[in-house]
Write a structure and sequence with these properties.
The protein has three helices and two strands, in the order E-E-H-H-H. With 65 residues, the protein is mainly α. The longest helix is centred in the middle third of the chain and has 23 residues. The chain is rod-shaped.
């Protein structure tokens, strides 16, 4: 059995053969952390293009012609 580098619990040698050095629980937490970071980066990148005004102001403007 292989030993996790984060929690020192034993996990399957098959998982180690696939290249994972952590158990499934620690690997899942790391994956979720990575997903949250990527989502936050994407939301920050989209924020400048997001309309923050009132919908009434946008659609109820009188014609200026």
């Amino acid at each position: 059995m292989a030993t996790c580098i984060e929690c020192e619990e034993e996990y399957s040698d098959k998982r180690l053969a696939l290249g994972y050095r952590t158990c499934l629980d620690c690997g899942g937490r790391a994956a979720n952390r990575q997903i949250r970071q990527q989502t936050a980066r994407n939301l920050r990148a989209m924020a400048p293009n997001h309309f923050t005004g009132s919908a009434e102001e946008l659609f109820d403007k009188p014609d200026e012609s």
